[in-house]
Amino acid sequence: MKIVASADWRDSLPFETPVLVADLAPGDDARCVGCGADSEPLPRRELWAVKHQHPKHHGGFVRFYCAQHKPAPAPRPVAASVSTAPGRAPRRTAAERPAPVRRPTAPQDRVRAMCPNCFVEVSATGACGICGTQI
Hints:
By secondary structure, this protein is mostly loops. The protein has strands at residues 19-20, 48-52, 61-65. It is built from no helices and 3 strands. A hairpin with an 8-residue loop joins strand 2 (48-52) and strand 3 (61-65). The protein starts with 18 loop residues before the first strand and ends in a 70-residue tail after the last strand.
């Protein structure tokens, strides 16, 4: 059995780009997330839907905003206009290079202290649990 996420109107939204709610899906009036739960519901033609990134859910989440609280659209990436010789890649400055990713070592990759007599792993106290040798 293959488990997939359901498909609905939110899947087609681009991330961090305001889209008029009336153009997306019909429905009742809704509230702006910036105005709060105590505000009056607004017609869908006055609300903007913005799909935000989420750290744990790849589909993101959608919030409705009025014109006053609508976030600015995400800036588009700008192509670098660096002239290079044919066949050579442009040089990057230290500020443009991505930082190296440091990942913590996995528990099975760490070197563990072993008792030279019993050949068992020694606890953090440094004493062998079988023969009592201090490492």
